[in-house]
């Protein structure tokens, strides 16, 4: 009998369009979500890590190029035979986690390599001659067990990059590094794998929950039809149930005793049906909830007007508290006399938890933005839609003033074209550097140097940019002072050299005059001119 009833419930799910569509929708989500994660999200994150690693490698390589360029400007093998130089390069390889490092002379000869077997070889590849020797950086991402630019098979994922060593516009040699990015890719893969471990059970649980929900919904639907057929004597009761039931249904008499309930009510209260029958609410309500429930029931009794969705806490048999919403209406007999109440109870405990969590999350983000040390702006339609308090402080304008003026008015005239052009190109989808510097002018007319970090976001369902600005004016002033100091030192050195050369030349002239006077002592004309 039970198996036959379960079969009917299952058939009812697929026979009812709404239940069938809900099941098919969640089944599609359960299948497509992992597929989307694997096919689209994972490759996208992998690409981002590789691009980030390649940028890191370029920064490291440029830094090392400055560190390793000899003071003599000559990249010769003898220079790299020095133990101090070798120790320095070995430390560089270790500190920067390099798979290999090489130094090339102007001719392309390898004058140093962390692999001594490379020393003395000459790079005659086209890319070295046509790209690197012309002062351009050349790089390539090489995957594990594939060949590098130099036809060498690597055992890990690396970025191979050449940095030309230039001095006064002339090519003196090149630096090549193999930057190991295996650990970064492994971290990403572990993160993606971990997310799949979390996502898959969640999807499975959601699918099972939906199946159970559909099964229970279908079961309730069939039970409702069965009760309607079995209890025809109370047609109004079951018509009301059919019209109002959503979750748990109950009926109580004038004394507050439970006289009828459905299975969902038994589940939400946590008492078996035989204990629920005739029970009063003091068994599952505390004093505060009892006062609230009494007030609502009393209002319905006096006015006859139903009350919908008033909220309170009930206590299950095991002591667990649940937050519920209840709708109640007056129940009358065939003569119109008041005999009790009927109601619907819905468990909203989970929704309350989610509401509280969302409220706390929003409060955290609000505090973070309002107390940030950097200025934060959201720019859209060439105006500032949102500034944080630090942004208002930096510009000197209120949020209302900023919303009414083009943000380009805040930019120094010499930088406006550049900033506006990058803003428009970034919104159009073009990839540009996310961080750069420019000058801005605040309300007081002060010129400020700022560093901008920007990204494209959706704001009110349209593209906008999220901008973090940091005031770097003090740093710029220090840089200018340093440059002025260096300039004065250079002028002092130059002046000293000129004076020395002039004294040398003057000494020769004086000596020649004395020699001329010695040889021609009686020549008055010569003496007059030399004197």
UniProtKB/TrEMBL annotation:
Instruction: Give all residue intervals belonging to the PAS domain.
Output: 234-304, 361-430
The family database entries (SUPFAM superfamilies) matched by this protein are listed as:
Homodimeric domain of signal transducing histidine kinase, PYP-like sensor domain (PAS domain), Sensory domain-like
Q: Where is the PAC domain?
A: 308-360, 434-484
Predominantly, its location class is: membrane
Location in the cell: Membrane
Q: Name one GO molecular function term.
A: phosphorelay sensor kinase activity
The record's SMART domains line, in alphabetical order, gives: PAC (SM00086), PAS (SM00091)
Catalyzed reaction equations: ATP + protein L-histidine = ADP + protein N-phospho-L-histidine
Q: Which Pfam families match?
A: PAS_3, PAS_9
> Top enzyme class of this protein?
transferase
Keywords attached to this entry: ATP-binding, Kinase, Membrane, Nucleotide-binding, Phosphoprotein, Transferase, Transmembrane, Transmembrane helix, Two-component regulatory system
- The protein's name: histidine kinase
Annotated source species:
marine sediment metagenome
């Amino acid at each position: 009998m039970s198996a036959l009833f379960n079969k009917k419930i299952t058939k009812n799910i697929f026979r009812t369009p709404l239940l069938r569509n809900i099941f098919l929708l969640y089944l599609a989500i359960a299948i497509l979500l992992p597929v989307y994660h694997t096919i689209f999200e994972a490759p996208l994150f992998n690409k981002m890590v590789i691009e980030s690693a390649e940028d890191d490698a370029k920064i490291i390589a440029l830094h090392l190029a400055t560190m390793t360029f000899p003071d003599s400007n000559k990249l010769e093998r003898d220079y790299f035979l020095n133990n101090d130089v070798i120790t320095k390069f070995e430390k560089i390889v270790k500190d920067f986690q390099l798979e290999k490092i090489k130094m090339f002379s102007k001719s392309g000869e390898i004058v140093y390599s962390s692999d001594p077997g490379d020393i003395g070889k000459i790079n005659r590849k086209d890319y070295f001659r046509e790209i690197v020797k012309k002062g351009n950086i050349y790089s390539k991402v090489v995957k594990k067990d594939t060949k590098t630019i130099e036809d060498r098979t690597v055992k890990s994922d690396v970025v191979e990059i050449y940095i030309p060593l230039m001095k006064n516009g002339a090519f003196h040699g090149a630096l090549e590094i193999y930057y190991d990015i295996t650990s970064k890719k492994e971290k990403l893969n572990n993160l993606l794998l971990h997310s799949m471990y979390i996502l898959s059970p969640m999807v499975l649980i959601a699918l099972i929950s939906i199946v159970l929900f559909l099964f229970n919904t279908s079961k309730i639907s069939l039970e409702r039809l069965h009760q309607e057929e079995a209890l025809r004597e109370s047609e109004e009761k079951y018509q009301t149930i059919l019209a109002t039931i959503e979750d748990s249904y109950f009926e109580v008499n004038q004394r507050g005793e439970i006289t009828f309930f459905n299975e969902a009510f038994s589940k939400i209260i946590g008492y078996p049906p035989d204990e629920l029958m005739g029970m009063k609410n003091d068994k599952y309500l505390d004093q505060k909830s009892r006062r609230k429930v009494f007030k609502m029931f009393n209002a319905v009794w006096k006015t006859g007007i139903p009350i919908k969705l008033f909220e309170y806490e009930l206590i299950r048999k095991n002591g667990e508290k649940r937050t519920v919403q209840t709708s109640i209406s007056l129940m009358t007999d065939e003569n119109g006399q008041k005999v009790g109440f009927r109601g619907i109870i819905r468990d909203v405990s989970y929704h309350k938890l989610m509401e509280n969590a969302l409220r706390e999350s929003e409060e955290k983000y609000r505090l973070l933005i309002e107390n940030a040390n950097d200025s934060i702006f959201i720019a859209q339609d060439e105006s500032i839609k949102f500034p944080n308090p630090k942004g208002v402080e930096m510009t000197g304008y209120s949020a209302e003033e900023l919303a009414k003026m083009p943000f380009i008015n805040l930019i120094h005239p010499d930088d406006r074209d550049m900033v506006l052009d990058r803003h428009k190109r970034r919104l159009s989808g073009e990839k540009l550097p996310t961080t750069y510097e420019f000058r801005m002018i605040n309300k007081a007319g002060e010129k400020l140097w700022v560093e901008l970090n920007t990204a494209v976001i959706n704001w009110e369902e349209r593209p906008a940019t999220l901008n973090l600005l940091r005031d770097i004016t003090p740093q710029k002033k220090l840089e200018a002072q340093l440059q002025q100091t260096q300039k004065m030192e250079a002028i002092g050195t130059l002046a000293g050299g000129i004076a020395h050369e002039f004294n040398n030349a003057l000494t020769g002239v004086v000596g020649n005059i004395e020699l001329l006077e010695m040889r021609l002592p009686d020549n008055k004309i010569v003496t007059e001119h030399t004197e």
